[in-house]
Design brief:
There is one protein chain. The protein has 361 residues and is α/β, with parallel strands linked by helices. The protein folds into two domains: 178 residues, Glycogen Phosphorylase B (Rossmann fold, 3-Layer(aba) Sandwich), CATH 3.40.50.2000; 161 residues, 3-Layer(aba) Sandwich (Rossmann fold). The protein has twelve helices and twelve strands. The strands form two sheets. It has a six-stranded parallel beta sheet with strand order 2-1-3-4-5-6, with helices on both faces. Strands 9-8-7-10-11-12 form a six-stranded parallel beta sheet, sandwiched between helices. Helix 5 links the parallel strand 7 and strand 8. The two termini are 13 Å apart.
């Protein structure tokens, strides 16, 4: 007997954590035995500027996709449906209709959440009832126990699996090599919640303290345009030390990681960012906030520093002290790469993911 599994994924474009993991699952996940896999893209956002926004074109896109996927579901009669599920606004409602479909036909399903949860949702009584109905008996994958509290009371922890992200090794021949530069790297789409303005304030603090450095910013325009970013840089007098490289992909992106010495990430809204795993992959020490599950990736005093307050002085002082302490810098670099190899490879992720899928069949 062939066991059929449908994977309802968010796939690029745009490129973000959930779509990148979805793409990895589609390309690399392999169920051995009498299993047949089907992959469907349920994302309706085609550009990062559309994300978390409702538009007529997205509604039409969703209706069309849902009808096609409904017919596919009815013809396939799957044994399990895996669903990458949003938690925000209309995105959750859209994805919840696939959960509802599974409930109506009594089909097993498994949810995979990639963000922080429902903690900041202001719901009406009807909205709270609907969330409870959809989620309360749902088997779900969370990225970390640290973010479990953001899903309560809608999810029961007895129904949760915990699966840290993993990525492909883009630096398989890694060997620590001292770099004669103070290059700092920041990678994120240009949105305020990722701490972009904090980043520039940190850079300003470094400059007024006569610390020589170069900060490179990589990412797509989103809430903030390249023109706005240039203005923010100019207002702080940082034109000679802060550079926006735009979006970079594949070898161009990995080259920037290889040439950098430190990864800086003062984010205000995150869960388990893949970009920090990329930093560890290239052996970069990381200085970041304590947002989401970042402390699962960066161990304070081992491979970087966790800054619990959004204070450019605290960030700046840690950066200066680390660059001035060459022995600690070497240790942090080696420890970053070691943590990546032990905890965050794609093979470890796929092995754990396979175990979770099989447990639901």
């Amino acid at each position: 007997m062939i066991i059929k599994v449908i994977f309802l994924l968010h796939l690029p474009p745009p490129v973000h954590g959930a779509s990148t993991v979805g793409d990895l699952i589609k390309k690399r996940f392999d169920l051995k035995g009498n299993y047949k896999k089907f992959y469907r893209n349920i994302g309706t956002t085609k550009d990062f500027k559309e994300r978390r926004k409702t538009s007529f074109s997205k509604i039409i896109r969703f209706i069309f996709d849902y009808c096609i996927n409904l017919l596919f579901f009815l013809s396939t009669k799957p044994d399990l449906v895996y669903i990458t599920c949003s938690t925000y606004g209309i995105g959750f409602f859209k994805d919840s209709l696939y959960i509802l479909l599974c409930k109506v036909f009594n089909t097993k399903y498994l949810l995979h959440f990639h963000n922080k949860g429902f903690h900041n949702k202001k719901l009406s009584k009807l909205g709270r009832w609907y969330h409870n109905y959809i989620l309360n008996d749902s088997k779900s994958i969370l990225l970390s126990r640290r973010i479990e509290k953001y899903y309560l009371p809608f999810l029961r922890n007895s129904n949760c699996f915990y699966l840290p992200n993993g990525i492909e090794d883009k630096c398989p021949n890694y060997k620590y090599k001292a770099k004669d530069n103070n290059k700092i790297l920041y990678v994120s789409n240009l949105v305020y919640s990722k701490g972009l303005l904090d980043l520039l304030d940190i850079a300003h603090y470094l400059k007024i303290n006569n610390f020589h450095f170069e900060l490179q910013i990589v990412g797509n325009e989103a809430e903030i345009s390249s023109e706005d970013l240039s203005l923010f840089i100019q207002e702080r007098g940082l034109n000679d030390c802060v550079y926006y490289l735009g979006p970079l992909y594949d070898n161009d992106k990995w080259k920037v990681f290889q040439e950098s010495s430190l990864f800086l990430y003062p984010t205000h809204e995150d869960c388990f960012p893949l970009v920090l795993l990329e930093a560890l992959c290239f052996g970069l020490p990381v200085i970041c906030s304590s947002e989401g599950a970042l402390e699962d990736i960066v161990v304070d005093g081992l491979n970087g520093f966790i800054i619990k307050e959004y204070d450019p002085v605290k960030y700046g002082d840690k950066i200066i002290s680390l660059f001035n302490d060459k022995n600690s810098f070497i240790d942090f670099s080696i420890n970053s790469r070691s943590r990546f190899e032990k905890e965050f490879t794609i093979n470890k992720f796929l092995s754990n993911f396979n175990s979770i899928i099989l447990s639901r069949l």
